[in-house]
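Hey, sorry to bother you again with one of my protein questions. I've been staring at a protein lately and its backbone has me curious. I owe you a coffee for this, so here goes:
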Amino acid sequence: MTLPVEGQSIQIHSYKHDGLIHRVWQETTVLKGTRNIVIGGNDRTIVTESDGRTWLTREPAICYFHAEHWFNIICMLREDGVYYYCNLSSPFVYDEQALKYIDYDLDIKVYPDMSYTLLDEDEYEEHRRQMGYPNVIDQILKRNVDKLIRWIKQRRGPFAPDFIDVWYSRYLFQKRYRQKE
């Protein structure tokens, strides 16, 4: 299996269960790339939606992907603190073209005070019926919602107090290093 290399710029591709592309992030800098974990950083990157519309991210973000967990976490650094957007998704795969995953609609938004909201339950149910999510996927995703909530409450992984400081510093270092090249 090919692994993304620290300092490398990669794309992130989000798909839906039916195999169609959902969203593409044009450029993310790899801060850590192992068989199980990819941590990346981006700021003001172009995002292309499935219908071709594009938009620019507004703030720096640290992205956490895991090859065994059915979620990924985007940590957005805003003026009033760090906000987290957690996508319930398939574990990632990386194939030299991009880091790829299937987005399963359910999301958890976490606020700087670590309060959180489960989002898009209606969209999840609609797509589950339309695309025929198997029961096993439904059970895995519900278990992973519970796991994510435990991580939030226990301040584990990207929710740990020093996670953002460490990885945002590495992102800024990589950004300065690449500008010198």
